[in-house]
Design a protein that fits this description.
Strand content: 25-35%
Helix content: 25-40%
Mean pLDDT: 83
Number of helices: 3
Strand order of the largest sheet: 1-2-3-4
Low-confidence stretches: 3-18
CATH class: Alpha Beta
Shape: elongated
């Protein structure tokens, strides 16, 4: 297990790592896009991410514009301890990409 993954697991186990936007600009862009009706609420996106990862807990959220659409990048830790990153279409909730961090 990488040092980064081990640190995240400890933080999550202690309840010290609630999901957070990577930076304040992400938060402001997401709020504005939600108010314009361009994206689903973050709570719904987190439900989708949790269901996709068997109850994974979000530890970081990034929000960006890519090819004309809003994308949520969510990093989660699964109940089994794997670090997973999902890219989710902000408007539809469709999962666009899934990466599992390898311990190697």
């Amino acid at each position: 297990m990488t040092r980064h993954a081990a640190t995240l697991l400890i933080a999550v186990a202690l309840g010290l790592a609630p999901p957070a936007f990577a930076d304040r600009d992400d938060h402001e862009r997401a709020r504005a896009a939600l108010e314009r009706g361009e994206v689903l609420p973050l709570g719904r996106i987190l439900e989708i991410a949790g269901a996709e990862t068997g109850g994974g807990r979000a530890i970081e959220v990034e929000f960006e514009r890519d090819d004309g659409r809003w994308i949520y990048e969510i990093e989660l830790i699964t109940p089994g301890g794997q670090l997973v990153e999902l890219e989710i279409d902000g408007a539809t909730g469709r999962i666009l990409d899934r990466e599992i961090e390898d311990d190697d």
